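During the no-cost extension, the postdoctoral fellow (Dr. R.K.) reprocessed legacy sequence entries with the updated structure-token encoder. One reprocessed record is reproduced below for audit purposes.
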Amino acid sequence: MIDDAYLWLEALDEPEATRWVAERNAETMTALADDDFTRTRDAIREVLDSSDRIPFPSWCGDGFYYSFWQDAEHPRGLWRRTTAEQYRRDEPEWDVLLDVGALNEAEGENWTWSDVTVLRPGHDRCLISLSRGGADAAVVREFDLARREFVPDGFVLPEAKSDVDWIDADHLFVGTDFGPGSLTASGYPRVIKRWRRGTPLAEAETVFEGHADDIIVRAHHDSTPGHERDVFVRHPTFFTQEHWVRAPGGVPEHIDVPEDADCDVYREWLLVRIRSSWTVGGVTHPAGSLLATRFGRREFTVLFRPDERTSLNGWSWTRNHLLLVTMTDVRTEAHVLTPGEPEWSRETLPATGEYAQTWIVETDRDRDDSYLIASEGFLLPTTLSLGTVGEPVEVLKRQPAFFDPAGLEVRQFFATSADGTRVPYFVVGGEKPGPALLSGYGGFEIALTPGYDAVIGRGWLARGGAYAVANIRGGGEYGPDWHRAALRENRLRAYEDFAAVAADMVARGITTPEQLGIKGGSNGGLLMGVMLTRYPELFGAVVASVPLLDMRRYTRLLAGVSWVAEYGDPDVPSDWEFLREYSPYQNVRADGAYPPALFMTSTRDDRVHPGHARKMAALMREQGHDVAYHENVEGGHAGAADNDQAATIRALALEFLRRRLAR
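Re-encoded structure tokens follow.
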């Protein structure tokens, strides 16, 4: 039995808990929502609603540019499309396919846009996923693109964390909540079924199954002419997977690669990105390598080999080429690779500027070798370009500056962590020392790269603050080894890295501990909680958004059990021994001297339970610490369902930090 006086706050909708949330929200808004807050919120809202933002598109193989768009007039958003010719214009003519706000009014719901899966070939039907209030769980409904309406008696799935894909116009692969035993312990699909149009879902044929303790099972149908096949993926843990491929009319065959490798099957090619070293064909390849072979063979070609400074950030196929994005000391570079025998040829795409990031937005691999590529930096607004391999790149959209960069510069430094590891971080600001905001994540092999954040620009940099991003271990900045260095029992390394960055900023005269604020969300919210309780002397204020904080109970709350490979299992005594060292909820003390803290979450977050933030705030309040709390009713794990909510919560965070650090 766990001794926890605030377990009652895990009950989302119980009157006592909802009353507590309402009271805390009122206190926070009363304390922060003055004229300065209103100006900050309005400035942020202006950015979020601006028509000058780039409407990032997706391609569905039919020649149209599709985009989901939210603004002041359409807070729940429009799903729309336009032609390639129209998209080039400053003000394209958009064909609205679905107005989510109008749908809500007609149906008396609070839908938010989640996802869409378009039927290929044909492109006349799609599956639209809509969630209530921004949760991960969503309903799935078939939509007719020609008629711009949901299909009467079409495919419909009730609210669940489903996984669906088209097989053909009359059949789907479906993973969803079919009833007892159909979900994993994490609440995701365990069973994949083949569902035929016009038949009850209960009669769908089971075609693939995972285990109850898996994370998730997925299915995908590849309709590429000449390469038709079904791909099934089973995830035993967050970082391991088994891939199975089935030819039409055949049985699934296992792809023989390491279970912690990522696989990509495309036409005749198999790509394998390995997370640990792998010996195959008498050659040992280091973790983070990308290998290629013709499907069914074992003669691998090395497409990317990491070194101590360079890692692979991602890849995308065009019809005949492979686009790679690599990262050296957290600065990206894009390349185009062309299959050949025995080696693939390689060219570098044009550079995008110092301290900028580049990413492949979209390719149209069913049709040709075209691609959309974007680049941005801390002080460089986003540019979106259209390219075709072997041809010049055309700039399609340039986002204007939303804040004045005059007097600001971007610098990269390296701090030395407790074990001697060099940890990179970026600082954006002027020359004078003063208030600074430091962010970080450090988990799940996710890299934080330089990006243009107009909200930070307007709400923080333009008001004299410096902004910093720490690239600590646990992330993906230097590939799988950088991530593995802070897994499970080594988690403290990530926290030591972040503390080292904070100390380095002070040593360089960028700020002082009293003027250094920190902010992070989700796993980054856990990072904030650990900094609060383990290194309180380093910071002047802390903001934790949608955070994990109770590592004793995290596996019992929503999707928490799916992250055991990252953190460890608190129900295993040996794991709890290292988890208890840093779990914020178990380490906050009444006699501790902590900086002021703001905890923010969402009632509709069905990934990280809002009970984490609720309980931490309640306990710290009881102990007499300076703590504020805000819980948005909607928003899911993103924290907000529309731009008004997003502007409010971001303004609350910045105003809280500004007031606490103005010393």
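The longest helix spans residues 643-661. The CA atoms of residues 558 and 607 lie 6 Å apart. The remaining legacy entries will be reprocessed before the final report is submitted.
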